[in-house]
Design brief:
228 residues, alpha+beta, Fumarylacetoacetate hydrolase, domain 2, six-stranded mixed sheet, five-stranded mixed sheet, 18 strands, 14% helix, binds manganese (II) ion
């Protein structure tokens, strides 16, 4: 097969204690999946079906590090999230089978141009440019299920310059990973290498150039980023 221009190299996530990388297929994100964050964003956590948006794989920043402050915003927010990586695809996956499709877990940050998102919501327009911009998805090192089990009850926190901004527990998710995988697999055929950002607890706030972010979910390697 020959291509008219060079094809993109796959984005690979590091795996703890492995030389191999997990190639990112697609990055799906669940919106408003923690009640306290749903309320802070003006939602109603009791009534919503899960909903999804995406980031292109090219937006993922394996290992974090330096994140360039993006264009076209003056209000970039951090959203601390558990990321679920799939090792096996499928469609119409049953909730009871969904965890068999999980390769591993990592800490991620869903960086968001909050001002553009607010404008998009107001105009009933898509969120792509508020969510799927370059470097909008730093992700830490993956732990395989064999190494860490399933992360369903783990304290999580995000600090900016050492000050705690977000803290919660992955057990506070409204739609748990098995339900999210099952629901999503009814909308699209999932593929090995797909990743799911599973939503954020309350405390999202703006970051500025020079800020250092430290994101942690108990049992997983921490993720550090600096905004430049
Ligand atoms: Mn998010």
């Amino acid at each position: 097969m020959t291509f008219a221009v060079p094809p993109l190299d796959p984005v690979g996530l590091a795996i703890e204690d492995s030389e191999a990388l997990l190639p990112v297929a697609r990055a799906y994100c669940i919106g408003r999946n923690y009640a306290d964050h749903s309320i802070e964003m003006g939602g109603n956590p009791d009534r919503e079906e899960p909903f999804f948006f995406t980031k292109p794989a090219t937006a993922i920043v394996p290992g974090g590090g330096e994140i360039a402050y993006p264009s076209a915003t003056s209000d970039m927010h951090h959203e601390l999230e558990l990321v679920v990586a799939l090792g096996k695809g499928g469609r119409d996956i049953a909730v009871g089978d969904a965890l068999d499709h999980v390769f591993g877990y990592a800490v991620g940050i869903d960086l968001t141009r909050r001002d553009l998102q607010a404008a998009a919501k107001k105009a009933s327009r898509p969120w792509d440019m508020s969510k799927g911009f370059d470097q909008s998805g730093p992700i830490g090192t993956l732990m395989t299920v064999d190494a860490c089990g399933h992360i369903d009850d783990a304290p999580m926190s995000l600090t900016v310059n050492g000050e705690t901004r977000q803290s919660g527990n992955v057990n506070q998710m409204i739609w748990k990973p098995p339900e999210a995988i099952a629901y999503l697999s009814g909308l699209v055929e999932l593929r090995a290498g797909d990743i799911i950002f599973t939503g954020t607890p309350a405390g999202v706030a703006a970051v500025e150039r020079g800020d250092s972010l430290h994101a942690d979910v108990a049992g997983l390697p921490a993720l550090d980023c600096t905004v430049v």
